[in-house]
Design goal:
Blueprint (H helix, E strand, L loop, with lengths): L9 E3 L1 E3 L2 E3 L4 E5 L6 E6 L3 H20 L2 H17 L1 H12 L3 H24 L2 E4 L10 E9 L2 E5 L5 H14 L3 E5 L5 H13 L7 E3 L4 H9 L5 E5 L2 H11 L3 E5 L5 E4 L5 H12 L12 E5 L3 H13 L19 H16 L3 E4 L3 E2 L2 E2 L2 E4 L6 H4 L6 E7 L2 H9 L6 E5 L3 H10 L4 E4 L19 E2 L4 H8 E9 L5 H5 L1
Parallel strand pairs: 1-5, 8-9, 8-11, 9-10, 11-12, 13-14, 13-20, 14-19, 18-19, 20-21
Antiparallel strand pairs: 2-3, 4-5, 6-7, 7-23, 12-22, 15-18, 16-17
Helix pairs in contact: 2-4, 2-6, 3-4, 3-6, 4-5, 5-6, 5-15, 7-8, 9-10
Amino acid sequence: MTDEPHDLPITVGCLVAGEWVSDGQHTNRAGPWTRAVVSTARQADDIDVEAALRYARRGAKAVARMSPAARAAVLERAAATALARRDDLARLLALELGKPVKDGRNEIDRVADTFAVCAAEARRIGGEVLPVAGWPRGVGNTALTHRAPVGVALAITPFNAPANLLAHKLGASFAAGNTTIVKPPPQAPASSVAVVRLLLDSGMPLEAVQVLHGGGPVGAALSSAPEVGVISFTGSPETGAAVARSAGAKRLVMELGGNAATIVCEDADIVAAARICAATGYSNSGQSCISVQRVYVHHSRYREFLDAFTLAVEKLTVGDPLDPATDVGSMVDDDAAERVVAWAHEASAGGATITTGGRRDGATVIPTVVASAPPDARLIREEVFGAAVAVQSFDDFDQVLATCNDSRYGLQAGLFTYDVRRILTAWRELEVGGLIVNGSSNFRLDHVPFGGVKDSGFGREAPRWMIDDYTVVKTLLLRGMSLSGEQEEI
């Protein structure tokens, strides 16, 4: 890979057994905005997979022997390096994915935060002394535990936030003392390699990471390999199910998307709610698993919200993702953009009203608002993962909670209200992994547990909770080395 993302196209190789391999078959990635080839990635083959697995088995021992302090120091340097390369990395995200450069800068800021949190968590990994003498058979014994690395982790990352989600998976795995095989998304090979390179430049040993580009067959071969002890996957439920079938009896952390709902109650600040939902429903062209997709507004404030929301959406700047003023850039490709527009018009044919948008320019979807969509519309039932938001009205709070739950997904939800009773009821009753109060569904802190229920997956991301999955508890039981009065009488 070239040092500067200005030199296009960027050629990236596979990192296998400590060496960057560039000879072989390559696949091009054309930017959805520029329509030109941005990057070309060397595709892994069966020989690469076998070599990577052999190397990972050996490398796991070397990484495990690193002290937590040494691993933390690498991650802290990586956090600083990410900030130093922020503009170039954001530009690369814009070119490969059509992500507005200001969103890309925010993503790299989160990469830096994530590495810093991983460093802190690396220093805190430990164990405990168990109170075994509280039971008769435990008297006279001492039991201790500590968390040991799983060994080899597999990180399968998505295109929508390829830098930060890779930072979560790879950073936490390294903090735990594992080696990691990374399978990047085909849509963002150069962005993914750039994150790996900044870690290597910050002192991560070659034994700690390998990168294999490729499609489903590469992912399946890695997932099924006995050398791999834990898999962290972010993507669609269908692909996640395929990974789980290949993996068999392995530890899995799965984040599988959603169709997030946000509820706006009658006591809400409507202007603020409309502004926040507009900003978070179309950031990254709505290509976020927690992006605002369904907004349910109390009928007494419905028209007020819909008008304010539509106006706020129309004020968003759509255009060149390299322009710092752009709010909404391109979607990942033309097919994704066409699907979003088709779903909006399908809802319209069922009786809904498109108040703005409903069209695309190439891979760019003009931010679309759909009012009063039928409950069986795909815009309501499925994950739109694009620049379209449905606005619905509701009458009864308990009923809207049931409506939100009537989904195969359950990742995050938003709630605008100042009523503590409603907040606690929603927290208890909503079938989601997280509830954001006086904010939309599309908010995340990288050091707070994140994950879903139902078809949104299982396990929790964020370094502290991922380290639990990336480590195993080992017990040391010492017998007869802690005598007590009761035992002396026996």
